[in-house]
Write a structure and sequence with these properties.
The complex is a heterodimer of chains A (about 110) and B (about 120).
Chain A (H helix, E strand, L loop, with lengths): L8 E4 L5 E6 L11 E6 L6 E4 L13 E6 L2 E6 L8 E8 L5 E3 L3 E5 L1
Parallel strand pairs in A: 1-9
Antiparallel strand pairs in A: 2-6, 3-4, 3-7, 5-6, 7-8, 7-9
Chain B lengths: L2 E5 L3 E2 L5 E8 L9 E7 L6 E7 L4 E3 L7 E6 L4 E6 L8 E9 L4 E5 L3 E5 L2
Classes of the chains: A mainly beta (about 110), B mainly beta (about 120).
Chain lengths: ~110, ~120
Amino acid sequence: QSALTQPPSASGSPGQSVTISCTGTSSDIGGYNYVSWYQQHPGKAPKLMIYEVSKRPSGVPDRFSGSKSGNTASLTVSGLQAEDEADYYCYSYAGSNNLVFGGGTKLTVL
Amino acid sequence: QITLKESGPTLVKPTQTLTLTCTFSGFSLSTHGVGVGWIRQPPGKALEWLALIYWDDDKRYRTSLHTSLTITKDTSKNQVVLTMTNMDPVDTATYYCAHREGASRTFDIWGQGTMVTVSS
């Protein structure tokens, strides 16, 4: 159950777009279309932003989008806003006994 | 509206057993496809899945911890309980329970979390 690989940090100025990558293997990201992304502000619980690679739960702004190519998933935040500054975690289903998270990426809005 | 809340001790001693309770509302754990999972997060570190129980009482555990974890449910009380034996200081973390949505296989709603410190 190895963690998915994310860059430790990412940044962008207000209004810009930022993409965060999440790399796994053919046993997790590459094998299933069950990739999710979570946003976590300091001291708060994770909040689901994207599920099934590219779907957005009700209430999540359409500035957040997800995609996948091979063993790598990506989260793009467009039109960056100050409130988007947070930690972001990817997650993938990898079989009934294997649920894996990424190491997290700290997104800074400059 | 789905809500979950974790409860349990904030401090346990090394080698002791930790028992955490997740009390939820807004859904039934007897509904096909539904599950409740436990995820933890050591201070300043990443999320780590621990265990998951399904509506049909099927149970899944993190492979590296499966000998120390037990997850159970009480459908009538809307509760899920996680026990973790032989606690160690490295188990110091915030422990979250979360609703597992069957079709999307994701944890869509999370509790606020409860911080557990392991120290003598």
